[in-house]
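Hello, quick one for you while I still have it in my head. I'm working through a protein record and want to make sense of it properly. Would you mind checking whether the tokens look sensible for this chain? I owe you a coffee for this, so here goes:
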Amino acid sequence: KGELRIQSLSFDDAGMYQCIAENTHGIIYSNAELKIVASPPTFELNPMKKKILAAKGGRVIIECKPKAAPKPKFSWSKGTELLANGSRIRIWDDGSLEIINITKLDEGRYTCFAENNRGKANSTGVLEMTEATRITLAPLNVDVTVGENATMQCIASHDPTLDLTFIWSLNGFVIDFEKEHEHYERNVMV
């Protein structure tokens, strides 16, 4: 195939590589530079979110994406407690932490630790639980004669510290009330 594979790269492998293809009609060359990147983990460009919100009974994924080469090993703590994979907690290969069935006890300071053969770093964020958003009055099926108006209601309860937005869609496509204001009207009751 004309393929070159290099396993277990070292800094000595860095440099300019040249591929030469030759047959009875002639010879052609192609060059490429191989750079070897190695750095300790750093969160300078992509720190963890300082505040993470999660809905009661829901699921949250807290991302941990430091810049590092080679790929670091990850570990997590909540406060001073080291976390491990379990029935509700999972540490992904990419470093993200997943928690399911969120309860008030899950609130607190979470720290992601990243370590490779060049060094280590960590980043911390605070998880806060919010009340889950729930539809308390769902739209009902409506039979309407052609040419008449139809009204559908949707009422939801939500955490008072958060804003609530209603999005309506028709057959899976979001309704743009600005573009279709002559056909659709939205009334928001506070």
